[in-house]
Amino acid sequence: MESTYITHSFAPIYDSHSRILILGTMPSPKSREVGFYYGHPRNRFWKVVSDVCGESLPETKEDKIAFALSHRIAVWDVLAGCDICKADDSSIRNPKANNMDIILSHTNIRAIFTTGTKAYQLYQKYCCPKTGIKAISLPSTSPANCRTSYEELKNAYSIILKYL
Questions:
Q1: Which domains are assigned to the chain?
Q2: Which of 63, 67, 73, 68 lies closest to 18 in space, CA to CA?
Q3: pTM strictly above 0.85
Q4: How far is it, in rounded angstroms, from Cα 148 to Cα 44?
């Protein structure tokens, strides 16, 4: 399969009250189509994070932004652009990292989390040397990660409460 260079097309979610930053790798084709983070209907990100925070599932883009900000959660992706084949993180070539200072200079981030191994590896290689903040790797919430049960995801993501 042929890869295509994709540029990240939507803004990070954060404000001055954000205390944790959760980073994916790069928006999936479905997320790019809907113009928002974790846009695939089977992606478990919004469900697991809202359950961990004891809230009902936010449905609309506006509800998700309001939920994240009200819980002091910033959401972005490690990469600003890359060559990628569909949503296959293992196909990523020519990665260009986002400038984390865009968020870090305007917030008091206490912890950075990544959603999946590839996001963690890319963050550690391209961002950590500049930020000096090591990331904590969480399991991917992607529908492709069917080996991790919902309960396992919820248990893993409960660590975010420690930093809010």
A1: 4-163 (3.40.470.10)
A2: 73
A3: yes
A4: 11
